[in-house]
Write a structure and sequence with these properties.
- The structure is a single chain.
- By secondary structure, the chain is of the alpha/beta class.
- It has one domain (4-11, 26-153, 170-192): Rossmann fold.
- It has helices spanning 19-27, 59-64, 74-81, 92-99, 106-112, 128-132, 134-145, 171-187; strands spanning 3-10, 32-39, 55-57, 84-90, 120-124, 149-150, 154-157, 163-167.
- α1 (19-27) links the parallel β1 (3-10) and β2 (32-39).
- α1 (19-27) packs parallel to α8.
- The two termini are 16 Å apart.
- The structure holds ligand PCO.
- Residues 13-15, 18, 125-127, 156, 158-160, 166-168 line the site of ligand PCO.
């Protein structure tokens, strides 16, 4: 079995409260997986980085770690490191940004620089009315067309009290999709498209 590097990314949906559980599910799987987390500024409202066992990367670090030509560029380093990226939750704001090529923070820069031969999964999460807005269908269609793999949202009573679609898929489902996407690489490590790590 090969070893895989999984980049989990989270955005400013309340579903980011599930990040500790999601990371636990992925790291406790039978597969050999190293996980790193990329978080937007807003997602940091919803979990305590201190309770995580993985490295957490932020926008502040991207700027602080670069002083002069020759210093590593964090979004490129993380792109090189990752065999797979999973954005969970993907909120309406970041969905709009990445489907339009905007790259104004660490997470969206990694997506903009992504090696399209590697799997990129996303689990949308947002209010039902945002989900049902026609812009969402346009953005989803762009992301699917690029080959990014959707982990569909589910229907439930949301954090704001509305009931309907827009809740993030269960963490068990997301972790299972990550494992499934890694399977070819775990079985045939030499098929990895990435530079040596
Ligand atoms: C609500 N927005 C949301 C975002 C999606 N919600 C969810 C679930 C959680 C609890 O089970 C928060 C994970 O409801 O994914 O609720 C109003 S803007």
């Amino acid at each position: 079995m090969g070893e895989s590097n999984v980049l989990v990314a989270c955005t400013g949906s309340v579903a980011s409260i599930k990040i500790p559980k999601l990371i636990e599910h992925i790291t406790n799987s039978d597969a050999k997986i190293e996980v790193k987390l990329v978080t937007t500024q807003n997602a940091q409202h919803f979990f305590n980085p201190g309770e995580l066992t993985v490295k957490v990367h932020t926008d502040a670090e991207e700027w602080e770690s670069w002083k002069r030509i020759g210093d590593p560029v964090l979004h490129i380093e993380l792109r090189r490191w990752a065999d797979l990226m999973v954005i969970a939750p993907l909120d309406a704001n970041t969905m709009a940004k990445i489907s339009n090529g905007i790259c104004d923070n660490l997470l969206t820069c990694i997506v903009r620089a992504w090696d399209m031969k590697s799997p990129l999964l996303f689990a949308p999460a947002m209010n039902t009315h945002m989900w049902e807005h026609p812009l969402t269908a346009q953005h989803l269609s762009t992301l699917r067309g690029l080959g990014y793999r959707e982990i569909p949202c589910i229907k439930k009573t949301l954090a704001c009290g509305d009931t309907g679609f827009g809740a993030m898929a269960e963490v068990e489902t997301i972790a299972a999709q990550v494992m499934a996407a890694l399977l070819p690489q775990q079985q045939h490590p030499s098929s990895s498209q990435h530079e040596s790590k």
